[in-house]
Design a protein that fits this description.
With 185 residues, the chain is mostly helical. The protein folds into two domains: 34 residues, Orthogonal Bundle (Arc Repressor Mutant, subunit A), CATH 1.10.10; 142 residues, Tetracycline Repressor, domain 2, CATH 1.10.357. Helices cover 73% and strands 0% of the residues. The protein contains ten helices and no strands. Helix 5 packs parallel to helix 8, helix 7 packs across helix 9 and helix 8 runs antiparallel to helix 9. The longest helix is centred in the middle third of the chain and has 26 residues.
């Protein structure tokens, strides 16, 4: 990650990463199928997290309330799972500067959406042609993504977390209220 941070993701080769780690290029590829996987080393966790939130909700808790609770917990603890941790602005800048990473993160977001939609469909016993689970997954994940991007924009602008956090809390409450009550307006 240090190499990527100092020179930019696209300017670092796998051979250079292997040299820095004192391993062979083949060893790197044994653990990481592509260079992007080195950078996105938590992608398996990131892909499965929305399904965990949906399946881990309390009895009677809606999926929207579960995502609200989880996002607000991450906001208060600055947990990495929604990109609210210290350094997420650096991560976001590196992704923005790399076409390969932008493409891979788009794939990651789509995979998360597909997995969450499948879990919601299974839970609801939805038919294959029922769009409701996919719509729910898309709205939930786009909401959390947009909220995270809002926070990162503040970080990139040099704002202190103490300024970002309360503003983000207000935006999160509005966003989840819209999801819970329906957009309607």
């Amino acid at each position: 990650m240090g190499l990527f941070m100092s020179r930019g993701f696209d300017n670092v080769t796998v051979a250079e990463v292997a040299r820095a780690a004192d391993v062979s290029v083949n060893t790197v590829f044994n653990y990481f199928p592509a260079k992007e996987d080195l950078f996105l080393d938590r992608q398996d966790q990131v892909e499965g997290m929305p399904v965990e939130v949906a399946r881990g909700r309390a009895p009677g808790e809606s999926v929207v309330r579960a995502f609200r609770r989880d996002f607000l917990d991450a906001l208060e603890t600055r947990d990495w799972r929604y990109g609210l941790n210290e350094g997420s602005d650096v991560f976001a800048r590196m992704v923005a500067d790399s076409p390969a990473l932008r493409a891979r993160t788009r794939e990651l977001h789509l995979r998360r959406e597909t997995l969450l939609a499948a879990a919601l469909a299974e839970e609801a016993g939805a038919d294959d042609d029922d769009l409701a689970p996919l719509l729910m997954a898309a709205h939930l994940l786009n909401t959390t993504r947009l909220l995270s991007e809002h926070a990162v924009r503040g970080m990139l602008a040099g704002e202190a977390w103490e300024t970002i956090r309360p503003r983000l809390r207000v935006q999160a409450d509005k966003a989840f209220d819209l999801l819970e009550s329906g957009i309607g307006e």
